[in-house]
Amino acid sequence: MTGYILKRLLSAIPVLFGITIIVFLIMALIPGDPATAILGSFATPENVEKLNRDLGLDKSLVQQYFIWLGNMLTGDFGTSFALNRPVIDEVLERFNATLVLAGTAFVLCSLFGVAAGVISAANQYGWADKGITFVVLLGISIPSFFLGMMMILFFAVNLRWFPVSGMWPIYGDRDFGALISHLTLPAIALAVVATGVIARLARSAMLEVLRQDFIRTARAKGVDERGVIWRHALKAAMVSIIPVLGIQAGFVLSGAVYIEIVFQWPGVGRMLVDAILKRDILLVQGGVVFVAACYVLFNIAVDVAQSLLDPRIKT
Amino acid sequence: MMAFLTLLARNRLAMAGGIVLSLVILLVLLTPILPLADPDVTDTGNRFKPPFSEGALLGTDHLGRDLLSRLLWGTQLSLAVGFSAAIIAATLGAAIGIIAGFYGGRTDNIIMRGVDMLMAFPYILLALAIVAALGPGLFNALIAVAAVNVPFFARNIRGITVGIAHKEFVDAARLAGMSNARIILTEVLPNVIPVIIIAMSTTIGWMILETAGLSFLGLGSQPPQADLGSMLGEARSALITNPHTSIVPGVMILIIVMSINLLGDGVRDALDPRLKSGALSRPMAATMVKREAPAPTSEGKGLLEAQELQTQFHVKDRVYRAAGGVSLHVEKGECLGIIGESGSGKSVTALSVMGLVASPPGVITGGAVRYEGKDLIGVPYKQLRDMRGRNVAYIFQDPLATLHPLYRVGDQLIEAIRSHRPIGKEEGRAKAIELLEAVRIPNAAKRITDYPHEMSGGMRQRVGIAMALANDPDVIIADEPTTALDVTVQAQILALLDDLRKSRGLAIVFITHDFGVVAQLCDRVAVMYAGRIVEEGQTADILDNPRHPYTARLMACVPELGEGKRRLEAIPGLPPVVDKLPAGCAFADRCDKVQDACRQGDIPLERNGARAVRCLFPETPLKEAAE
Amino acid sequence: MSDALTLDNLSKTFPVGKSLFGAATASVKAVHPITLSVRKNETLGIVGESGCGKSTLARMLVGLLPPSTGSIQIEGAALNNADPADFGKRIQYVFQDPISSLNPRKTIRQIMEAPLKQLHGMVKPERDKRIAEIFASVNLREEFLERYPHEFSGGQAQRIGIARALAAKARILILDEPVSALDVSVQAQVLNLLADLKKEFDLTYLFISHDLAVVEAVSDRIAVLYFGSVVELGPAEVVFANPRHPYTKLLADSAPVVGRPLTAPEAKGTELPNPLDPPPGCAFAARCPHATDQCRTQIPVLEDTESGTQVACFYPLADT
Predict the structure, then answer these.
(1) A neighbour chains, 3+ CB pairs within 8 Å
(2) In sequence order, what DSSP letters do the residues of A103-142 get, joined into one string?
(3) Which of B242, B276, B296 finishes a domain?
(4) For B169, which of A171, A252, B113, C252 is 20 to 30 Å away at the CA?
(5) For A292, which of B121, B280, B420 is closest by C-beta distance?
(6) Taking the model in full, what pTM does it have?
(7) What is the ipTM of this complex?
(8) How far is CA C7 from the centre of its chain?
(9) C20 touching chain B per CB within 8 A
């Protein structure tokens, strides 16, 4: 098992390389001159040239890439000109907040999605199935940002059950209870779409598995229906559900961008959108590379989980 | 195509989605000629007018612009962008996927590495990076959304293409002299297109959401032009004071995406061939029972007895009479063979005994199954479950498919026991080893931790037999247990079953299509054709002296080892399909002794002692031979 | 009689496993070097159990797989490294699964036309005439031409597969388990049809099957394949009636025969050797009741015996 994990980690290296190259190339496409963007259009040519030199922009693209990569490997992601702060500090701080939000949403959507899918499949065409199918359809059709706005309107403004926005109270203690009350609405709004997708997939994976011969074998030896569904069928269905959980984690991270904006959550997604609108290139680059790298590592964990479940995968 | 449309039309939800979507599209197409206010003209004096106000049906926004007009123009824009993104992503992705999947090898490797790389990003990061590079704008958002979806299509289509490229008809096309380009266009593409359409119809909604999302963030359409996403984005600051400006575009997105999803699901269901036969429904815990007549009274024959058992498959408006009134019995310690071709109803009969016929579509519609005289058809599920494996156990055909792939064989054996009585960990382990030893698996203590895929076919089938033995049943029903095995392995499995029967006094019902196997193992044999028994009797008796023309001709047409090169006595024609059975004898059309009487009315199974035959003109008359 | 097909040292090795950088970490010999010839108008049966390499051999013979070593000659002309289309005119293939060998989205006419158009460049009226002739030969009605594959039963689909192979005008057909997917009552129809076609079109068959009785009933000569090698080769009436190789005897004894009592013919394991780690000597040694040290260290080659068969065994069984 350790060998397998090591192998997967090693195989992630070229992927991480690829990510940095893709990000670098996309950023290199940006028309115009970053120095002008930073200094404003009234800057003197001398100042622009000096800044270009300072930023290393007078070198060739390949040189620039390796300098950037080398710096990143030592933890230096550059400095955000808009915030005047090291990119890595800002990204780490923001990513923490995103992790709380997206992590909670991911746990919610995995649990509820799989459970809903299994119950739906086990009662195919029954009332539970129809109800779940309808809710799921609603969930995957509603834009998460619209859902978030409606939740604010209803639960925060009208019912006053939860705060309207933010991660912490402006005044008062930053304790666990405060976090939970701020987290509830955004986490649910973020989890809804992924729950729907996972539930749909879990349902069809279960239906697929329930038709397999080994289910008939389990019934023939006298296993009760609960054991057939939750032990035999769900375990086999998880083989196709787990990779989707990995993909959905990416969607939860993506959806977090909208939710962070709607709920004023101080996360990395909001930071990126702000940075793009301000053309803060280094912050965009650093943020994207950092989050993508974390996602790659997460997917390795998913692969490892898959190999623990399925002995047919060679480890 | 017509079949596709009728299937789609039959799906009420999809129809509803289609109608709503058509209405929206119609409205959007009519927008330029509708008497609407200019969507971009601001009128700050009339800002935030509520819905249903004079001159503004849906009210106005923060700049006093008519919301209805903006909604329709915005919908037009959102739909156009969403559909274009979907078409671009599907075309590019499909092309990449087909090339990678068809050529395989290095081409595949390089392309898929690139795709993996792109999929290593949470998609919005890539989209944000692209928009950051190209600058905010609706067209750039379109490019970003299409680009991030290309890898999804490519991976999906590649998987399908790999499956098709390894199909035998592609080999055949190659042998017919076709070039690769021609094979891709005429053999692969027609088989991939339905998948592309499915993938597209189920993702368009999502792409509309994504473009709306980018606009919502202010990275898509730029003011004053608005799509639905940017309308929502602009309305957000007035969410609490004037929620209608948010609700109007939000609900529109919901309506569009939901109708597209409904329609997309309908398209998928109509195009997916597995769903055509209704195959994707989940089999229930026990076969459905709808007995039209009361159970026949017990005749007290044998340990396990089927009386006039009828099992049907109800698929849409067709009724397949898979078992059309089968009477059989097996005594303690006896081996009964059921022989027949595929579709003869032999497996369905056997599976009906413990309610294991997949249902839907299977329904037991008549007769009785008696175990020690007690009818089992329609008993509560709990009672049936309790008997499964304990009184009557099964061995199935393909041992790789019939064992759970993710549990160790030892655990699967212990579970069989635990389903009927509590058993401790140590005792369970000891019992599992004992069972594996009973079926002569060498190194049993070591093999209990094996997974099924780690064993050979013969060993797996031994595990299957051990599982059937786990609760010391009285009857084992073996459904073609050696058909998937090699001959040398088959010989061993048969010998094992024979020994177990003798040493444990088991009754075995052995289902097969092979006369050689029946001859070696079974005491009595029943021959089935088109869902009914056509002949029954002692094995040696039937083999030496078949009465029914079908039995006789079936035996004659199967080559047997040691007879040398020869011309076979083929039976012309095909077995009938059991949803359109002819009146009278089902074999009549293929029989060379057929007479008019054979096609008129039901032909009874005539009995004389152990011997029975369902034929008006048997090879040798029943009475004569008994004398 | 001249040879229709000659295999000289033909073998196939597959790379398996993948290291981090995509290079193969091991290799599996699916077919060990085989030297064999098939005479004109002969039916050579190839029999073996799963994993013996019979399908790999068949795919090499029609050019769908490039051989690792050796060469193939058809009617005296070498055919190595040629493209499948060139093979197609001389040698054709009938697939095991009749349904999946027909493209579900093409009509039977489109399927039948492909070889006529691509291999022989026939124009439409010529093609129609030829298809009509072939369909008459395989007893299929011409109205079937406008239908799609899913409308046919296995037996009919296999006739269509045979018709397609005939359309290429090849004189050698590789029949890869052509009847094992069919019901027993339909098997005989197809086997008889194959026999008729052989006479009518002067064909040479390579008939691959796991069913000993079927192979015996259709073949002139039989080659027994075990673990990628031919272990016994001889006239059909002799090979199973009088087996010289212990494996052939095991096969013959295992086949269920009416009237023969049920005994497990072999006490030792039934496992094939591990293809990743093949034994140094005879592949059958571990299962063979007569194996000696010589068997476990040296590989026997095919040699003539007095009964007219060739056998690859150091201690062939006595003539019975």
Answers:
(1) B, C
(2) HHHHHHHHHHHHHHHHHHHHTTTSHHHHHHHHHHHHHHHS
(3) B242
(4) B113
(5) B121
(6) 0.88
(7) 0.89
(8) 13
(9) no
